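Chapter review: from sequence to fold.
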Amino acid sequence: MTDFFKDMSRLSFDPDSTGLAFRHYNPDEVVAGKRMEDHLRFAVAYWHSFAWPGGDPFGGQTFDRPWFGDTMDAARLKADVAFEMFDLLNVPFFCWHDADIRPEGDTFAESLRNFEEMIDYLGTKMEASNTKLLWGTANLFSHRRFMSGAATNPDPEIFAWSAATVKNCMDATHKLGGENYVLWGGREGYETLLNTDLRRERQQAGRFLQMVVEYKHKIGFKGAILVEPKPQEPSKHQYDYDVATVYGFLKEFGLEDEVQMNIEQGHAILAGHSFEHELALAASLGIFGSIDMNRNDYQSGWDTDQFPNNVPEVALAYYEVLKAGGFTTGGTNFDAKLRRQSLDPVDLIAGHAGAMDVCARGFKAAVAMLEDGTLEAMRAERYAGWDSAGGKALLDSDFAAIAAKVVDDGINPQPRSGRQEILENIVNRFV
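The token string follows.
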């Protein structure tokens, strides 16, 4: 045991507690036919919890963690602390980037040796833990070599480096029994069209993702391949802007049946959407997979990655998750970080515990709304005309026939209320 979380015990479900406990999240509570833990499938993000130094665009490191440093001993200590936190929170999953878990070497080969050694170490930790790997991914954005992208880089050697990195991360994810593999194109975009060949870069990105899918089948990885949409930040324009953009990309390269979405609340907001919009769209297109649960500061206008605290927003998100059939290989990953003034170990536990409670409250509200059925009944009523014989016939007709029918039948439609305020009031009964 390390002494980072000294004197702290595993959190329990205690709705009357005034201390550090779960007041709403009871992993063993059966809701809608399954344990809450099996519905929500919580995961801790290795990068924000253990690798992030507490900086922001205007200031540097504020955290002073005993495992910070570019050595293997520090990496092992980081893993020890991480699994202690997983146990304190009793979370079923965690997620990582390669750069989170190993120090950077002077060469690709040295970095790979460090990575493989740490994968073996994580495997040993997992054998003694109840926490499994939800997904792995590659960091193809932090190092200066990726300043012009990874798969979309104008330098073919960067493409090759990136492909080799993803190959190794997929191998590691498979070895650790990960249930998904995620690609987030943090630098797959452009700053100016003056030096950008859009068609070439899209072709590179498309072929790269095809290679990912080909390699998945080659190694027998049974998990899902997930793409995480991200707009604008840090590039002026990202090729994976939102769910709709990514779906068009997948269709172009014949990947719509091979790749699903990992959708983040904060990214949805930056794209000008709501979280529930992105979830509903992905589900309607058949590409919903998993979620990153966090929130943005709506005054800041950038990706602040804060822990969720808005029950109504979370309820609407899980309502769409439930309508999509719930998670299969996916889950709820807290892609969230402490505020740079929250320095203490207890802050890290409290941030996750509070977020898990918010998600539990929102999830139970979503279940209640769905079981109540009023929202879905009113939605069905609004579109009932399309289920009639006349409505169905319209889509099999043509303009000339429709125009004649409008004249012959004296059709004179009148607008009907969308009842938005009534619907919002219904939601408020549950949240």
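Two observations follow directly from the output. The mean pLDDT is 97. The two ends are 41 Å apart (CA to CA).
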